[in-house]
Amino acid sequence: MPSIAVRAVQTIADRHLAAFEDWLAAERHQLPLFIPIALGAGIAAWFAIAAPAGWIGAICLALAVAAVGLFLEGLGARLVIIGGILVAAGVGIAWWQAERVAAPVLDRTHFGVELVGTVAAVEHLPARDRTRLLVGQLAGFPPDMAVRLSFRAVPEDLGPGARIAVKATISPPPGPSVPGGYHFARRAWFEGIGGTGYALGDVTVLSPAPPPTGFSAWLANFRATLNRQLQQGVGGRAGGVAAALVTGDRGGIEPEVTEAMRDSGLAHLIAISGLHIAVVVGGTLWLVRRILTLWPWFALRFDARIVAAAFAALAGIAYTLIAGAGVPTVRACIAVLLVLIGLAAGREAISLRLVAVGATLILIWRPDYLLSPSFQLSFAAVTGIVALYQSTWGKRWSQSDREGGWPTRFLRGIIALILTGIVAELTIGPIALYHFNQMGLFGAGANLIAIPLTSFLIIPLLVLAVLLGGSVLVAPVYTALGATIDILIGLAEWVAGLPGAVAMAPAMPVSAFLLIVAGGLWICIWQGRRRWAGILPAAVGVAIAFVAPQPDLFVSPDGKHLAYLDGDSIAMLRPRAGDFITTMWSGAAGSDAVARLEDREDADCTPAACRLLLRHGPRRWDILATRSRDLIARPQFEAACRESDLVISDRYLPRWCRPRWLRLGRRELNRLGAVSIDLASGRVRSSAAEDGAHPWARGHEKNP
């Protein structure tokens, strides 16, 4: 009897295995799309795992899984082998890249220090009345350390290579203000920035910048000149947007314009990406091919398609370099070059394979870009749109689009544009909520007007303005640019001002985000009916995001700031907390309603400290937080510590300050970094625990 049961189970297993192999064989052409996914999984594992022992363990586990595939057969076995190797490679690539870019990092804050160094890069932020300088070769510091300084004003002719002297305060790159939030220290590590600071006076130029030598220096000087010409030539709010669309420098865009573009779902239009590259390359391709086909001698002897593709490729590369070679721009350029190669070879122009190749190349080059919102947003939008038109329905729609008269074709074009906008919003929406805790709800409608306006008017006018340079003929082009960009800004402000235009949500758990991404990728990659199984993990992720418990308290890394999250608002310990930390905390709380802690009925505040009495479930919490440098007598403070469950302070708390549950003074926060606390569960989450032994966390102890 047992043998009959075993044979029955084996028969069922064989049947399911055969069905699985048949399914993989039917979807064979989609399997290469998992290459960047497996590689990205390994990279994500390296960033998520805290210690080197875990990194080694992840590599060994992935290789062990690959080894298991050696004992299997069929396509499934090959997937296991290649997938395991790619995951291990992802962990190794991220680890190697982090160690390769290692540069000295400040270990403490230096107040009012005299700095003498060489300017490595200049970033003008006219909309904020600021200029940032990346300064290296600092006297008295390691020669390969670079510090980013913020200035009110610098000489107009200050450029890379100039030797300067300035009095400044510099600190280690700051970590996140809330666990899981924006991590500048991690970004600075991969960009070679060892410290940040601000000037305390005017900069003294010890020796001027030498004339640009070499292609990189020439390109940087050309970009700066072009940026200045566009900002000044177009002028006003439109000037900053015009410069951003050409050089990628968004420092001239006013914060109100940036906010309106974001809230209206049009922020992608001011971040150079696939749309901009496609317009430039597509326009070049069409124009060159049309000119060449009108030349009979050339048309009879050469393939105009190949020559036009070569000119278009050069235009795409030039635009990418001028735009600063950011993540979306490089990704788009790689994809466009592959498209042009496909066109020249007579192959399918756009496919998910091209998207996968672009993602793979970028992840190998800069694995840290995987965590970048820019990388995720650009690839998510492109993947969703390409998957839509590569689906069975999309192919039928594309084929039928050539049928009928121009009214029918025009109507189909409008419908296609609407569907494209909806798919783009569905793919980038969860990512926007995860990183920024908000998203514009009317983006699909706004893009119906904004994308044609940008594609057919603004970008061609910008190309014409660049080609005309400083000639007198450029003046009317600048005027037209200003008018059309003002229309775009006006549209963004109108949409952003509509009731319910922006949806806010508290910080999304990583598990929810990963489930939503996994479900979306499953739907986009597969072609058959099984693709719709991806709805399940995505739905589970959405449910987790809605029901996940939120923390009750946020504590800043220096202990100066505390926020209590109470439903739809957050109460701040210090009324003047600063725009940055208020924005970060209100975003993580999913609420822009900010109040003062001292105005709460359950808070008792003095200029020196606040006492907060809370009840969560059956437990009553007594929380004490200092908020000034005023001296508090020991008898009074010691008694207050003893009666409190939690004490929070930016001071070094004495040993005799012993609360009933937890003490978070300067000494403890130096070790923990930013902290969030869930009072119901008693869970304390810290940014230092999440950083673990990653290189950007080494030596980041704050100064006494």
Give the topology:
Blueprint: H1 2-26, H2 34-48, H3 52-69, H4 74-100, E1 110-125, E2 130-136, E3 147-151, E4 163-171, H5 184-191, E5 195-199, E6 204-207, H6 214-234, H7 236-247, H8 255-263, H9 274-293, H10 296-301, H11 304-322, H12 327-344, H13 352-365, H14 373-390, H15 392-400, H16 406-436, E7 438-440, H17 443-468, H18 474-496, E8 502-504, H19 510-525, H20 535-547, E9 553-555, E10 562-566, E11 569-572, H21 579-589, E12 594-596, E13 603-605, E14 609-616, E15 619-626, H22 634-643, E16 646-648, E17 662-664, H23 666-672, E18 675-678, E19 683-686, H24 687-691
Parallel strand pairs: 3-5, 11-12, 15-16, 16-17
Antiparallel strand pairs: 1-2, 1-4, 2-3, 4-5, 4-6, 7-8, 9-10, 9-18, 10-11, 13-14, 14-15, 18-19
Helix pairs in contact: 2-4, 2-13, 3-4, 6-7, 7-18, 8-18, 9-11, 9-12, 9-17, 11-12, 12-13, 14-15, 14-16, 14-19, 16-17, 16-19, 17-18, 19-20
Task: Summarize it.
The protein has 24 helices and 19 strands.
